[in-house]
Amino acid sequence: MIRRSISLLVLLTMTVFLLTGPASAYVVPVFAQRIDQQRPVLTALELKLEEVRRNRHRLQNLNAATTEKMAVLKRKITGLRHNPEELTPQQLTVLKDETASLARQRKIMAATEGLIRRNSIALRKHLQSRDYQAALHDLDRIIAVQRIRIQSLQAVSPILDRLIAAIP
Questions:
Q1: Confidence band of 28 (pLDDT split at 50, 70, 90)
Q2: CA 131/CA 137 separation, integer angstroms
Q3: Which 8-state DSSP code applies to residue 86?
């Protein structure tokens, strides 16, 4: 702990010397130039991070709505198990078709499982190493996966509605 404090103090002292001492005429313009060069990339990073946040919020809302509909569907299925003869052939056909559609959407969701987390870990590493171009690429991949998941959840909602409506 003491060693860390001393090294931090030395680093801080050197930084102050560089910024205020004889080398400041060179160091300050170089820092300003680097900041100006990176400003467009940093702005793009901020915009993409904001889109990721909006998409995450949207995914959370869609997941909550889907969870509620699944709970309603489970209760109806439980009631149907007690009286299976209440189903008409048309209702049975609707249930089979919609269940197949639901299975397709689940496969899409399963294919994207974990991709956001992996890309987020890569994003953190690239941000720590200040590789902003790679970070932008990671954000693009995260956004693409989020969009796929949003589309899939939006497709699941009407399927669940039709399943709920088909069960008496």
A1: very low
A2: 10
A3: G
Q: Which two tokens stand for residue 164?
A: 């709920």
Distance CA 99, CA 158 (A): 12
Q: What is the largest CA-CA distance in the chain?
A: 91
Compute the radius of gyration of the chain from its Cα atoms: 27
Assigned token pair, 42: 């940093």
Phi and psi of 83, rounded to 5°? -135, 70
Helix axes 132-166, 115-128, angle to 10 degrees: 160
* Helix (H) or strand (E) segment spanning residue 145: helix 132-166
CB proximity list for 51: less than 8 A, separation 6 or greater: 143
Both tokens of 131, joined, read 């590789």
Return the closest-CA partner of residue 90 out of 166, 32, 17, 150: 166
Other C-beta atoms lying within 10 Å of the C-beta of residue 22:
8
| Model pTM score | 0.71
Q: How is residue 23 annotated by DSSP?
A: T
User: Which tens digits make up the pLDDT trace of 97-150?
Assistant: 888 988 998 998 888 888 889 988 898 898 888 888 888 899 899 999 999 999
Residue type (1 letter), 20: T
